[in-house]
Amino acid sequence: MSERIRAPRGTYDVLPEDALAREGLQATARGILERAGYARIETPTFEATELFARGVGESTDVVQKEMYTFPDEGVTLRPEGTAPVCRAYLEHGMHKLPQPVKLWYLGAYFRRERPQQGRFRQFWQLGAEAIGSDDPAVDAESILLLAEILEAIAARGLRLRISSLGTPETRAQYREELQAYLRTHEDRLSREVRDRIELNPLRAFDADHPGTQQVMRAAPLLLDRLAPEDREHFETVTGLLDTAGLAYEVDATLVRGLDYYTRTVFEFTSDALGAQSGVGGGGRYDGLMEQIGGAPAPGMGWAAGVERMLLASTPPPTAPAPLDLYVAYAKPEHQAEAFRLAADARRAGHAARVELGGRSLKGQLKQADRAGARYVAILGDEGTSLKDMETGEQREVDTSTVMHYVGRAPL
Ligand code: HAM
Question: Which residue among 52, 89, 125, 264 is best mutated to probe the pocket of ligand 1, counting the most ligand atoms within 8 A of its Cβ?
Fold first, then answer.
C-alpha cells in the first residue's frame, strides 16, 4: 500500500459535528452585525501581492515571512481581509454610497506560521469594516459589536485592551524618540529587537525576551505623545465605551501585527486559550486607502479568528436534524418504489431518507429509530404500511397517500 496522504500541516477538516457550531457562530454574528447595518462582502481568496505589501506593510512579519505567494503570477493567498475590502471599496466606487459603508465577511485566510494550539496556516476570520467616517462613535460601535458577538457565543475569560497610535506624523516623531531610547539600551535588547530598531521599533513592546521587557518598562509611550485632536478622539471612544458599560483596559503598549493602524487599536484576549490568546482585534486605518492608491477615506474595523472564538466558547447543545420519513422496503424488488417515494417526499419539502446500505428490513427499522424518524413507511408484497414512531400506531396505506400523512397530525 502506498503512503496515506494527510491534510497539510496547519490545516484541519471541519467535520459535520464541528460544522454545526460554526454555523451557529455565523448565524449569531450575522444577526448582530446586520442589525447594526453591516452588509456581507466576500473578496477573492488571492489578491495582487502588492496589495498586501503596501497595505499590510513591508516590515510586518505577515508580509516578510508568512505569505503564500505565487511569484510568477504576482498574487498571494490573502493573509487578512482589511486591505482586500478597501480595494473592493475603491474598485466599486463605494465612496458614492452613504458613509460609513459597513461591511462584514467570513472566510479562509492564510499565513505560513508555525502551527500550534489555536494557530493554523489556513484559518477563518469573521471581520467587520466601517469605511468613510472618522467619527469616534464608529470606533466605539465597532468594538461593542465584537464584544456583543463574543458575549452571545459565551466566550470565556475575556479581556479587552485598547490604545491609540495617533496619526502617522505623531508616530514618526515618536518612532525617532523610541529608536533613540532603544539605541541607548541596545546591549540589553534581544538580537531580534536590535535588528529591527530601524525597521519596526514598536515591536520591542511585544518581545518575550526578559531584558527587552525590562528596558521597555521605562520606554516613552506613544499614548503620552498624542496630538490634542487624537487624544480627544481617543477619549471620546473610551467615553462611549463607558457609556455602553463595556469594561476595557487602556494599554499603551498594545501592538498590532499590521502596519496600517492609526488612532484606535484594540484587542480581545481570552484566558481560556493557550499562548495564542488573541481572539479578535482591530482598529482604525485612516491612511490605508491612500497606501493602496485610492482617494483618502478613513476606516475602522476588526477581525476575529473563528477557531479561537469556538475554542473560547461553550458550544450550545445541538439537536440532530429532524427526519419526517424513513422509507424501508422488505425486498430488493421494492427498492425502486421506495427510492421514488423518498425523492417525492423531499421534493414536497419533507426530510426523507431511504435505505441505501442494503440492510435487512430489521436493520432498516433500527436505522429509522436511530435517526429519530417521525414516520416509517414499509414497502412490502402486501402493500405499504405506515408507522407513527411517536404513537407506535401502524396502518396499511396506499403508497401514493404516504406523503399526505407525513407532516400532518398523528395517525
Ligand atoms: P489580526 O490580529 O492579524 O488582524 O487577526 C485577527 C484575528 O485572526 C486574531 O485575533 C486571531 O484570532 C485570528 N488569527 C490570526 N492569525 C491566525 C492564525 N494563524 N491561526 C488562527 N487564527 C489566527 C487582522 O487580520 C486585521 N485585518 C483585523 C482588522 C480588521 N483590523 C482592521 N480591520
Answer: 125
